[in-house]
Amino acid sequence: MSVSVVIPALNEGPTVAQVVEAVLADDPLEVLVIDADSTDNTAFEAARAGATVLNWREILGTPTIPGKGESLWRGVAAARGDIVAFVDADLTSFRPGMITKLVAPFADESIHLVKADYVRTFGDHTTGGGRVTELTAKPLLRMLFPELAHIRQPLGGEYAIRRSTALTLPFVAGYGVEVGLLIDVASHLGTSSIAQVDLGTRSHNHQSLEALSSMADVVAATILNRFGHDIDVLQRDPLD
């Protein structure tokens, strides 16, 4: 079972190298940093740490559309592994061994998606992070998709999916990509195809309320779209 790690990155020069180094310690088939036109030293730092850096425009040869999900979609297209693991580039707490834990459940052939479970820090506090998760995603999932209410980090950027499965699914272009994939896998393959793995604590750079409000809009629109409401969500069609 080969593993490709895809790290979407946009101006994450201060943190991307340590994330790449932690991932490489688990000896995956490849580590791909998908650089969405960073204007800082992200590409240099990622390459220096040992990653293969691909500008998102180099993959598939089609014009890009804004959003994290676009980088993940293109990362799946570029990946060669049986399993694709996604890791955010702004983490300050990613450690060696986490990729190994994240992909372990795929030994069971019925598992198609593995979500990381962790405690979200907030500044100097050991809890309190994940404001969009707690105030937008989880309430809507409890109401509309109660079978997914047990997923503790539905928006977490650390997760893994069988590439063969990822190729058959649409990817929301923006920050709704995680919850969109979660709902789609459950809808197509059942909730029993989704596993969770405890990865301890997650720390990353926190964004302003203005930025979080924009994320919440996309997350809410994605959940409502998947429930059947006539709400447009910008997304990429399946690669397969």
Automatic annotation (TrEMBL):
Cofactor(s) recorded for this entry are: Mg(2+); Mn(2+)
Reactions listed under catalytic activity: (2R)-3-phosphoglycerate + UDP-alpha-D-glucose = (2R)-2-O-(alpha-D-glucopyranosyl)-3-phospho-glycerate + UDP + H(+); an NDP-alpha-D-glucose + (2R)-3-phosphoglycerate = (2R)-2-O-(alpha-D-glucopyranosyl)-3-phospho-glycerate + a ribonucleoside 5'-diphosphate + H(+)
**What enzyme category does the UniProt record give?**
transferase
Q: Which domain of life is it from?
A: Bacteria
User: Which CDD domains does its entry note?
Assistant: DPM_DPG-synthase_like
Q: Keyword set for this entry?
A: Glycosyltransferase, Magnesium, Transferase
A single Gene Ontology MF term assigned here is: glycosyltransferase activity
Every copy of the Glycosyltransferase 2-like domain together lies at 4-128
* Classification via NCBIfam families: PRK13915.1
Protein's UniProt name: Glucosyl-3-phosphoglycerate synthase
Q: Record the organism.
A: Corynebacterium deserti GIMN1.010
